[in-house]
Structures are given as C-alpha cells and as structure tokens.
Design brief:
InterPro entries: IF-2B-related (IPR000649), IF-M1Pi (IPR005251), IF_2B-like_C (IPR042529), Initiation_fac_2B_a/b/d (IPR011559), M1Pi_N (IPR027363), NagB/RpiA_transferase-like (IPR037171). The protein has 355 residues and is α/β, with parallel strands linked by helices. The protein is 41% helix and 16% strand. It folds into two domains: 129 residues, translation initiation factor eif-2b, domain 1 (Four Helix Bundle (Hemerythrin (Met), subunit A), Up-down Bundle), CATH 1.20.120; 212 residues, 3-Layer(aba) Sandwich (Rossmann fold), CATH 3.40.50.10470. The two termini are 39 Å apart. The protein binds 5-S-methyl-1-O-phosphono-5-thio-D-ribulose (MRU). The site of 5-S-methyl-1-O-phosphono-5-thio-D-ribulose has 19 residues, from helix 2 and strand 9.
Amino acid sequence: MSKHTPIQSVQYRGDHLLLLDQHELPHKTDFVRIETTEQLWNAIHALQVRGAPAIGIAAAFGLSLWANQQKEESDLRTFVHQLKIQRNYLSSARPTAVNLCWALDRVVQSIQLAETVQDAIQLMEIEALTIQREDETTCQQIGEYALSLFQPGDRILTICNPGSIATARYGTALAAFYLAQERGVPLSVYACETRPLLQGSRLTTWELQQAGVDVTLITDNMAAHTIRIKNISAIIVGCDRIAANGDTANKIGTFGLALQAKALGIPFYVASPLSTIDLDTPTGECIPIEERHPEEVTHLAGKRIAPEGVRVYNPAFDVTPHEYISAIITEQGIIFGNYREKLAMVKNQMNLLIS
Ligand code: MRU
C-alpha cells in the first residue's frame, strides 16, 4: 500500500508561519500567512488553526516568530519579561485545550540556560520545532496502540476532527485509520458532522478521503441509530483536556456519544497525547468550557437559519465523566480505568523525560 503524505497544517518559515486555513476546507486549500502574535491569536480564536495539538504547535512557533523579531542586543531580563506577556496573550486565545498553555510553557522554560538574548532566540526555535516533531511521533504511537484495539472490518465512529490537520501528522483518534490504510487493513469510519462548525463533515471526511480511508458521513443525531443498524464496534474520539481523574473535555456532542456507547454496549475510547493530560485540573468540573459566538448556531455557511433575536447557548466542548471511558490511549500505552493513579504515573514519567 502506498503511503499518503497529508498536508502539514502548521508550517514554520523563520520570519512567518503558514497555517492551512481550516475555514476554507474542503473547497480550498489556502494558507494564511502569520507574522505577528496578534495575527496568530486571531487565527487560533477563529479556528483557522484548530485541534488541541495543532494550536499548541502554532503557539510555540508564534513565540519563536516574536523572538526572531526582537533585537539581539537587548537585555535578557527585558526579553524574558516581554516573552511572558506574549505567552499570556497567546494562551488567552482559547481556554479549553490545555496543549496551548503546555506548548507555550515549554518554549518559555526552554530558555532557562540562556545567557544572552541570542541564546534564548535559538533555544526557543529549537523547542518549537521539537514540539512539532515529537507530536508526529506521538500521534503515530497513539495510532499503533489504537489499532491494536480494532479488528479488520471494524466500523468505528468518531466526532469532530482529531486528525492529521489537528496535529503535526496522523492525528490522535484518526491515527489508527492512517496506519491501517498504509498496511491494507480494512477499517471503516463513520464521521459525525459535528455541529455547529462542521469539523466532521468539512475536515475529517476530507482528510480521510484524501488518504483513501473508507469514510461515511452522518449528522450528529444519527449516531445512536447508526451504531445499532451499522454494527459500529467502537467509538474513538480526541480530547482537549483530561483532568487528573480521567474526566475528559472534547468537542460538544462527545458526552452524548459516550452515553450511547454505554447504552448500546460498545467501547468508548479517548485518544490522547500526554500533553493533553492536565494533573493540575482535579476533575472535569474544573475544566473551562469555551462558549462561542451565537452566530455559529443561528447561521449556516453565512446564512441565517434561526429567527432574529433568539437566545443561543453555544458551548464548544463538553465533559465526559471518566466512568464512561473504556480506555485512554496515549503514546505510552493504553490505560484501562483506574485513571487517577495511572494518569499521574504516566504523566510524571513524561515530565522527567522533558525536564
Ligand atoms: O474546536 P476545535 O475544532 O479545536 O475542537 C477540536 C477537538 O475537539 C478535537 O477533538 C481535539 O482537539 C483533539 S485534536 C487531535
């Protein structure tokens, strides 16, 4: 089987960043050019770049871009002070995905041994490039573990876009499908369209189609029926933050799918890089849930579909309590239950590796 090379959604060019404009997909594959942290903040906030790992990668490069624009002869203390302001500014672009802060903090911490601004600039660029490179390996490992849970011929349901364009490559929850495709293992994907911004119908179907993966689109309210009628064997989703007890925030609609999985007796898997596990957030109740503009609900493709003046509630994410999660699939292995203890173990090992 031939290996498909997907488009890389975040491309660093030293003095600018190119972001695959995820607003325009699937009709156009345009890139937005980013030169300032303000432009990047807007692109993250508007979901031109999206998906927890990808926004972390983009933000890491954003700090590096900013650093490259600073004068090398300026003093290190002032540089660090300004860097922290940029870090806080970028971290405010979206609240739920912890990868954003995680990646920004890695870049800030990377300059600990710098003696000059020049050192700091170089270290920051190296760290941002490392975060992107590591994410590709991480996703591939998650894919290997996820694949071990599936049988040839399985039909698997997913939501949102936990795919290649939401990461450095392969995706988290979609990684197994890329690996299966490369190896000729037949798997079918059922993609929920993911209202209101349609990441499932616009992005997941597009990227899987490009790779030749067998994908079928359904609307979100077709999931329970489809699980029963089409013999779906499992649900696999990505995530934006996993609390210390295993409660997991992901795209709105995910919790409903977990309830359906339990009711219909199929496993519900969460694919997560360790960077998405946040031990500082004790439970799902403490995860900040982004609420977005009402127009995302009242309008479709720029056209109003709801009456003028209607009140709207538009949470972008929901939290699936840990007891509904059959397993969390990380790059270090698969965790089946007992999440509080095992997440702490696996996460602390990672901290040892990168500190
Ligand atoms: O609002 P989005 O499109 O950024 O939401 C993304 C998700 O919910 C994904 O499932 C999650 O970030 C995992 S991406 C590999």
